[in-house]
Design a protein that fits this description.
285 residues; alpha/beta; eight-stranded mixed β-sheet; 8 strands; 54% helix; globular
Length: 285
């Protein structure tokens, strides 16, 4: 079993570690534009050997784990060179653009559009975690366009890592993920910016910041190189979620200005039900 990981960072590296457990005889090859990442991935045992693009003719699996704008460029080229028996899947946070990019490719049947919803704010091979996907949801789009035998091959790997599989059309995925992921990252980045701009003495931030602030701005440590293309590709949906979020913030501000604390209490109490929603999600997982 020859598995090629294009992009040896957090997600690609974590999948590589999971694949080693599932396919004990597998050899993991790494392809990355960052030479330091390849050296680090080798040193950490995330990959077994460094490869080049031309080696993909020997692939059984190809994991495309690069920024979403790079995926749009790379995926058609990957499909051009892989053998008929190989399965390629991406892990990007936007699905409609990449599905459209290969809609008419003669090897479309060899591709599975996937989005494992897992990760941390860290990046690079050292961020790869064995067991990262245990109990996490993996969204699969347009599964019917992937050859059945190759579907099974990829799904068996996903399930071996403890992933919960959900099927969704690409447009619905991009709409929903804008609310629960993309908006969360923007909120975190902008909260961090607001505090940094206001508190010029950084020591004051660290002295007064509690666990609530730290957890809320955790996502602001995420890679701008990864997230800027995501916002670009999902611009329409992200703008819509921002409009709704800004409207809610403005309403809260107005209530404060009017000293309407009963309404503020009711607003927060209404949102408290999210505890039960999240609890239900965890039970399902």
């Amino acid at each position: 079993m020859k598995i090629y990981v294009i992009g040896t960072g957090l997600i690609g590296g974590s999948i590589a570690l999971g694949a080693k457990d599932f396919y004990e005889e597998a050899k993991i090859y790494g392809i990355d534009s960052n030479e330091n990442h390849l050296k680090e991935a080798m040193a950490l045992g995330v990959i077994d050997e460094v490869a080049v693009f031309e080696d993909l003719v020997n692939a059984d699996f190809v994991i495309l784990s690069v920024p979403v704008d790079v995926s749009l460029e790379f995926l058609p080229k990957v499909l051009d060179v892989i053998p008929e028996s190989a399965i390629v899947f991406d892990v990007g946070s936007t699905k409609n653009p990449i599905c459209e990019a290969v809609a008419n490719h003669p090897r479309r049947r060899n591709f599975m559009a996937a989005h494992p919803i897992a990760g941390t704010e860290f990046s690079g091979p050292s961020a790869a975690i064995k067991g990262l996907f245990q109990g996490k949801t993996n969204i699969i789009c347009e599964v019917e366009k992937t050859t059945f035998k190759l579907q099974e091959k990829a799904l068996d790997l996903f399930k071996s890592m403890g992933m919960r599989i959900r099927y969704m059309d690409p447009k619905s995925h991009d709409k929903h993920i804008a609310y629960v992921s993309h908006l969360s990252h923007i909120s975190s980045f902008m909260l961090g910016k607001t505090v940094i701009n206001k508190e010029k003495d950084e020591q004051d931030i660290f002295d007064m910041a509690g666990s609530g602030f730290e957890s809320t701005v955790r996502l602001a440590k995420s890679s701008p190189a990864m997230w800027t293309p995501i916002f670009k590709q999902n611009k329409k949906q992200v703008v819509k979620t921002l409009e709704e979020y800004i409207s809610n913030l403005s309403k809260f501000k107005e209530l404060l200005e009017k000293d309407d604390y009963e309404a503020i209490y009711n607003e927060m109490q209404g949102v408290n039900k999210i505890k039960e929603i999240l609890k239900g999600m965890n039970v399902k997982k």
